[in-house]
């Protein structure tokens, strides 16, 4: 489990896992049925999001300019999603788990293809930071 306060929580899309992020710089994957921890990822959490198989969390590197994609079942790092010039403030999957959206202090949002991990849209024009995506 975590050794510090939990600051983020998200169900996966199938509802059988909960992903938690903590001030102790960990992201944990929990089995809803048993209440047992399935995986503990050592990264800097902030907002996190999950599908049935994948976990997203802000990266500890590069002043949180990118997002890390992890396999929730194996704990394997899959990809780093980069492109923002300032801190990533929020991240989420779409309902189908096909796209990943990020919001940033640079005033932009980005949309990534979850399969290819490529940025497919840059949404710019806000005069201030974008704090949330959903």
Automatic annotation (TrEMBL):
GO terms for cellular component: nucleolus. Transmembrane segments: none annotated. It is found in: Nucleus. Its main location: nucleus. InterPro entries: WD40/YVTN_repeat-like_dom_sf, WD40_repeat_CS, WD40_repeat_dom_sf, WD40_rpt. One of its GO terms (biological process) is ribosomal large subunit assembly. Keywords: Nucleus, Repeat, WD repeat. Signal peptide: none annotated. Pfam families: WD40. WD repeats lie at residues 1-40, 81-122. PROSITE patterns: WD_REPEATS_1, WD_REPEATS_2, WD_REPEATS_REGION. PANTHER family: NOTCHLESS PROTEIN HOMOLOG 1 (PTHR19848:SF0), WD40 REPEAT PROTEIN (PTHR19848). This is DAW1 factor. The lineage of its organism: Eukaryota, Metazoa, Chordata, Craniata, Vertebrata. The gene is Daw1.
């Amino acid at each position: 489990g975590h050794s510090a306060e939990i600051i983020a929580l998200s169900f996966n899309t199938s509802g059988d896992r909960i992903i938690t992020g903590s001030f102790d710089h960990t992201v944990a994957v929990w089995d809803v049925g048993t209440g047992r921890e399935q995986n503990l990822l050592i990264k800097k959490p902030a907002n996190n999001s999950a599908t049935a198989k994948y976990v997203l969390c802000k990266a500890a590197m590069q002043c949180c300019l990118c997002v890390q994609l992890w396999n929730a079942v194996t704990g394997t790092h899959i990809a780093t999603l980069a492109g923002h010039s300032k801190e990533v403030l929020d991240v989420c999957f779409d309902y189908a788990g096909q796209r990943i959206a990020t919001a940033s202090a640079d005033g932009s949002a980005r949309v990534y293809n979850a399969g290819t991990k490529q940025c497919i849209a840059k949404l710019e024009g806000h005069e201030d930071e974008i704090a949330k995506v959903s």
